[in-house]
Amino acid sequence: MLVRSVLGVCNAVLSFSSLVPSAFAYSATTIPSITSFVTNTTREPFGLDPYTQIVVDSRYADHGSPSLSTFAQTFRSDLVDITGYTLLPQVQVASEPEDNSSRPTIFLILDSTPNFTLYNGKDTDEGYLFEVSREKYVISGAAPIGTWWGTRTLLQQLVAAENGTSFSIPAGSGRDNPGWEIRGWMLDTGRHWYETSFLSDLCIYASFFKINEFHIHASDNLWIPQILYGLDWRTLYSGFRFQPPDGSPVYDLVPRRNECWSQTDFMQMQSTCAAHGVTIVPEIDTPGHSLVLSQWIPALMLNGTPDSLNLSYPETIPTIKSIWQQFLPWFSSSQVSIGADEYSASLADEYISFVNDMSDYVGSESNKSVRIWGTYEPSNTSSVSKEITIQHWDFPDGDIPLQLLRSGYGVINSEQAFLYLDGKIPAEGGFPQSLNETLLWSGAPGGAGWAPNIFTTDDATNNTTPDDPNLRGAIFALWNDWGPNATTPLETYYQLARSIALFAEKTWAGSGVRSTELTQAQFDVLYPVMNAKAPGQNLNRVVDTQYSDIVYQYDSIPSYPFDTQVSSVGPPYTLTFSVQLGPQANPSDISQSVLFSGIDSTLYASSLTMESNAEFYPTTFTFPAGVFTSVTIKATREYTYAEVQPEGEGKETYWWTTTLNIWGDYLTTANMSFAAPAQYVGCQGFEGTIRNVTLKLGV
């Protein structure tokens, strides 16, 4: 994790009080908004200081998985991250905090007495009470997860209350719980490779806003009809992200061994997410979106459609079950997704039989239940089991959610009209890069805001009520239809960051249900503050500076590689340097032409190529031999370009771009945004001289 800073992103948000209109209620200082907080003006506020003690009630310290103690340890780390109080005492376990009025105390306990319910009347263990006085801040959760969400509220209250280096929260009492059980986001990792370290950071970030599910779409393929349904279908990009161990009967399923997660890495990510209150729900998508299986065993595919499997072929279902048998022991979630979307309606009965069979199989093997994407399959003889949760996504063509709910199915709302995103340039009439905020704040029927009970934008009779007993919640989805070269991982974060916070408000509080819900104006003020201070990760790639806006500056580089100790810098930034390639340099040898590198990107002299996430983005520039060339790189979250000027020549500009194939209909060019390759100057064996290096914030 990079060193956090009060510069860059944080520069404008040190004093929350200067940003929040005085008319805002105190309960409107967190995302998502809390159910209630009644201040007590007759009592002194709770003042946090560097010696604040965190105490876990010894009666409940080991309760839960993760346990209350585990959550407390993570909370302490987050508290240090936000406050800078590096000498904060270690977490204590005691029946009562020490009676020390001079030391403020945060007391974490469990209390099953309060009755916390979702909007549909079902009990939830995610609720909590909190009591704030001068000496104590007490969080009482219905279960450890409830207490954990209470710590998120406390942290956000501290961010809102920060005044220089001091923190003060008004005395009073509060109560809070979510309106819906499922509040999550989905990321298409089947068509875009991501390291588990990045995905773990996304979990940590989302947890700050009380998001509780991360749906990982772990297998899929690009859809370019000319290739998919042509002779070269075996060459079309597909991905399967779980790495079978050596000797596994499904070992050869994975097409790219460098683009899959080992069991150790996946389970560590799963554990990290769980320690922050986020459950990973894995998806292996069959019998559609299954090119990766057909490329492995061509006999499995449906004739003429390599991305669909032939369920009548004797080996198809046993093969699918063998995949799940291999990986089910990895998954700690109580539900998994088997995908099951966009399969031929002419094979409805086979499809329904397969879905029910897989539900039974997963249940018998692991005691887990399954989810499927809502795909209407016309059949007069059979139906999908009501033990299966339907993740609705396409009204009205895929299914009719109101009918599903009334028929007794558990439903998750992922309606594409509200909740589908896509990486980079959308196709004509395609999906946006981030959630349509106008639509979510006021685009529901009658001008109301969106909530999980809203499935259509115009006809309220097709929607349900917040208290529908079978409505489980909502998940928004970011697809990577244009493939692995369309975005860098950090660009994915830029797409998700604000949408996660807005979605958290809409799925925790709802829309028009509680009087304390945030308005759009309140959210717009709160979000930059909370994003800049979200603890436990540094996806914004914020760093300290040497002075003013200068991250570092070197007139000369003593040896290569030279370590600046700055692993990455997020945009906006400007990187300037001058380089002369040596007489023995071979710019075409990319392995020997590293100019700069960091954890997120690498810049090569060869064609002034930028690399991120194992994807290469060259320009048309070639460094001339024997002379110094001045280079200035400027980056924002929307683009990155270089101004280059060899000695004695004019200045030219080169943009880093990518070419996207939009479903085989046309090619389009899109700009790329890269974090600065900030840590190393040059590489082992670099031939040449790099000098006059300056990296500064801003463009």
From TrEMBL:
GO BP annotations listed: carbohydrate metabolic process
Catalytic reaction list: Hydrolysis of terminal non-reducing N-acetyl-D-hexosamine residues in N-acetyl-beta-D-hexosaminides
EC numbers on record: 3.2.1.52
Keyword Nucleus tagged: no
Keywords, alphabetical: Glycosidase, Hydrolase, Signal
Signal peptide: 1-25
Lineage top rank: taxon: Eukaryota
Gene3D superfamilies: Chitobiase/beta-hexosaminidase domain 2-like (3.30.379.10), Glycosidases (3.20.20.80)
Glycoside hydrolase family 20 catalytic domain residues: 181-509
Top-level class of the enzyme under EC nomenclature: hydrolase
InterPro entries assigned: Beta_hexosaminidase_sua/sub (IPR025705), GH (IPR017853), GH20_Enzymes (IPR052764), Glyco_hydro_20_cat (IPR015883), Hex-like_dom2 (IPR029018), HEX_bac_N (IPR015882)
Active site residues of this protein: E342 (proton donor)
Ribonucleoprotein recorded as keyword: no
Annotated ranges, domain Beta-hexosaminidase bacterial type N-terminal: 30-175
An example molecular function term from Gene Ontology annotations: beta-N-acetylhexosaminidase activity
Protein family: Belongs to the glycosyl hydrolase 20 family.
Protein name: beta-N-acetylhexosaminidase
Native source organism of the sequence: Coniophora puteana (strain RWD-64-598)
